[in-house]
Write a structure and sequence with these properties.
alpha/beta, two-stranded parallel sheet, 13% strand
Length: 328
């Protein structure tokens, strides 16, 4: 009996050790990924799929958009200890450099979308009729003596073509940190890129069939990458990163005149707009009967919306439906 008890105790000790080893390995395998905006968050979800080793956080999770976001103390701690941090890298992310300098994890993998795109990143464009920001005017005054400062359009995720390039880099980064699942990440990324390519073709087909090739925004314009992809023209009240909320009489008059000249049936706005500028533009056209349509720039999607089934692809597909109506 004593021998049997000793054997049972030995077995229990061995089992305990094995379980302990197993839990230690599991803990080591956990990969903490922190992303700033929803498109990046969703791309990581698509690449990782149901891999339990990936712990994923979305920082911009309360509906605030990229341009007005400032990290909380908790956000800074989350970034400091993560294994992979992925952010856009434009003008709105100036806070990142100081945050990374203070990070605890000095071996952190950092992905900057603007760096990934390289020369595919576009300088912010000021089109005819656009209203200049107050701070943009001040910058111009500061640099007028030959010292030129370039500001890049940071809304790179609104190009399906760009998204495919970025998805590859994310899969590569995940695979280097979690080597056990590297093959799965690559396979998942390839399958997802196929969906991006298919949607890209649907956009091109819609534009090819469209009778109108110009969009008019009574709002900020974050869709330059999208319009450039399909060679669409556009007019807008403000540039994509503008902080302005009120349009001047001259801007309203110009946009209303363009809507009349081009016989546009729709005036556009983005998802965070209160619609006042678009409606004022419409009220100043000759016909005053344009439809107000909304394109989602995916800048303020929350994880709650993600839990309810919204994805980068589902929102971009919904945008395609809106685009078809605008170009009809």
């Amino acid at each position: 009996m004593k021998k049997l008890l000793a054997l049972v105790l030995s077995a229990l000790v061995l089992t305990s050790l094995l379980v302990g080893c197993g839990s230690t390995e599991s803990k080591k395998a956990d990969v903490k990924v922190v992303t700033t905006i929803f498109p990046i968050y969703d791309w990581v979800r698509e690449i990782a799929q149901d891999d339990a080793d990936i712990n994923l956080d979305l920082l911009l999770d309360n509906g605030v958009d990229l341009h007005s976001y400032q990290p909380s103390a908790k956000d800074i701690v989350d970034i400091s200890d993560c294994d992979i941090f992925i952010y856009v890298g434009g003008e709105s992310d100036k806070w990142v450099d100081d945050t990374l300098k203070q990070a605890n994890n000095k071996n952190m993998t950092v992905l900057n979308l603007m760096d990934i795109l390289g020369d595919k990143a576009k300088e912010e464009e000021v089109k005819e009729g656009m209203q200049a920001d107050e701070d943009e005017h001040e910058k111009g005054e500061e640099h007028k003596e030959g010292e030129e400062e370039h500001e890049y359009d940071e809304h790179v995720w609104l190009s399906l073509k760009n998204s495919s390039l970025i998805v590859d880099k994310i899969a590569e980064a995940l695979g280097k940190v979690d080597t056990q699942h590297a093959i799965d990440f690559t396979a998942n990324a390839d399958a997802y890129k196929g969906k991006l390519t298919e949607l890209d073709k649907q956009y091109q087909d819609a534009v090819d069939k469209a009778s109108v090739k110009t969009l008019l925004f009574g709002d900020r314009f974050p869709f330059r990458y999208l319009t450039d992809d399909y060679k669409l023209d556009y007019y807008a009240a403000f540039v994509g990163c503008s902080a302005e909320t009120e349009a001047s009489f001259e801007t309203i008059t110009f946009l209303a005149g363009k809507a009349d000249e081009l016989q546009l049936k729709a005036i556009m706005q983005i998802e965070t707009s209160d619609g006042s500028i678009a409606k004022t533009v419409r009220d100043n056209t000759k016909t005053k009967d344009q439809t107000i349509l909304t394109l989602d720039s995916l800048q303020s999607v929350t994880s709650e919306r993600a839990k309810n089934g919204e994805t980068y692809l589902s929102i971009m597909t919904a945008n395609l439906d809106v685009l078809k109506e605008a170009l009809a």
